[in-house]
Request: fold
Amino acid sequence: MKKHLIMFALAIGLSLALTACGGSGASTNLSVDMTEFMFNPTDYSVPAGQQITLQLSNTGSVEHEFVIMKHGTEVGNDFGDEDEANIYWEAELQPGESNTYTFTAPSEPGEYQVICGIPGHYLAGMVAKLIVVAE
Ligand SMILES: [Cu+2]
Reply:
């Protein structure tokens, strides 16, 4: 009897773990490091429409931004005023700053460009990718 209970508990635990992963590699918890001039990691997979918790750290020596562009939009030569209207969500961090944010993942599956909006940083290679997967 006791053995059955243990097996049952293990089965529950396993199913919870599988549910949390969604089976697609998508996660509602992201952790991203920013420095000159890169994001680490550079690919994030999240479930559509879910609340996402994002742990951001700026370990560089200048200000950095985490800017998610709207679906179907990409920054041109460098991030400029014309791109402001295409921002889906953004956060900015001073050097040495760490913060936890929450935002709602876009409801439309697909790839979303992530960039740093500080002048010159996009050009220097601060680009990443948010991949929104259907639930
Ligand atoms: Cu930057």
